[in-house]
Amino acid sequence: MRHRLPPLNPLRAFEATARHGTVASAAEELNVTASAVSHQVRVLESTLGVALFIRSKARVKLTPAGEALLQPVKNAFDMIATAVVRLDSPVIAGDLVVSAPMLFTSRWLARHIGDFLEHFPAVNLKLIPSNNDKEIYSSDVDLCVRYGEGRWRDRDVKLITHPVLFPVVSPALMNGPRAIRTVQDLANRTLFCEHAESWMRWLAEASADKLEGLRILEIGIAHVGIEAAVRGQGVALGDSFSARDDLADGTLIRPFRITVPAKHAYYWVRRHELTEAPLVAAFVSWVESKLA
Q: What H or E segment, with its residue span, contains residue 61?
């Protein structure tokens, strides 16, 4: 795949222009002329064969293709910057307190945390399973992962991922005598979720919200519903983030391709003075590299 990567300079011009919203501001950051930035962006568009911006006199706006490209490119540059910082401070050591939602810690982080500890043996990591805003404003917490709207005052906020929702079931349930083959097979099955509204949005997208015999069980904590599905107790409404490892190893199966966007997204939330702190940057870079 790497032989298909575009040149670095056009990618830098694209990312800076998208972030600032103007060619002039991007040129100032990159210490080049505005025409040079415009040329590099056109080179990238020509290389990819798509338009990345809708141009006007004052500002530029991303096209759908530009939107799809921006976050991966930004994440890649952030990881490079973090790696350079780590070269200046090769020994990452000290106390790091991270607060993250239960779904994040139980369905994803618990499966990968050993890799972080192996790479950073001198870090004393403490995890707080929570999605409560009190940790965001606590001086005792260095970094938060939060599921929400992305608006927290006086904090640096960066998108991690905006998941999509879809049903997931255990292989046993899929292969049993009452196997789920069509959306209509969801009737008279227990449908687990944190909030019934999410299931109803998916069912509406699948034209099945009027299906008779629907039985939705609000279980309050999303990871409990996923675990119930793993155990063959019913069908859970999973998402592209928390269920990714279960789908990869076959613990869960996705019976339908239909998806709806999650109501909220996952974000990094941290104090501005800790944005470039080596311990925080190391953890952020590690998570993003694993997700990539």
A: strand 60-62
* Whether 243 contacts 168, CB under 8 Å: yes
Q: What pLDDT digit, counting tens, does each position of 247-275 carry?
A: 988 999 999 999 999 999 999 999 999 98
Q: What is the spatial distance between Cα 288 and Cα 164, in angstroms, rounded to a whole number? A: 18
Q: Residue 213: phi, psi to the nearest 5?
A: 85, 15
Render 230-254 in DSSP notation, one character per residue. Answer: HTTSSEEEEETTTTHHHHHHTSSB-
**pLDDT tens digits for range 176-228:** 777 888 999 999 899 998 889 999 999 999 999 899 989 999 987 788 889 99
SS3 216: strand
Q: pTM for this structure?
A: 0.68
Please name which of 283, 231, 253 lies closest in space to residue 82, comparing C-alpha atoms. 283
**Beta carbons within 10 angstroms of residue 51's beta carbon:** 14
First to last CA, the chain: 14
Among 81, 80, 69, 79, which residue's Cα sits nearest to residue 19? 69
CA 241 vs CA 119, 222, 228: distances in Å: 23, 12, 18
- Phi, psi (rounded to 5 degrees) for 5: -65, 135
Distances (CA, A) of 254 to 80, 183, 239: 34, 12, 10
Which residues lie closer than 8 Å to 254 by C-beta, 6 or more apart? 166, 167, 168, 238, 243, 247
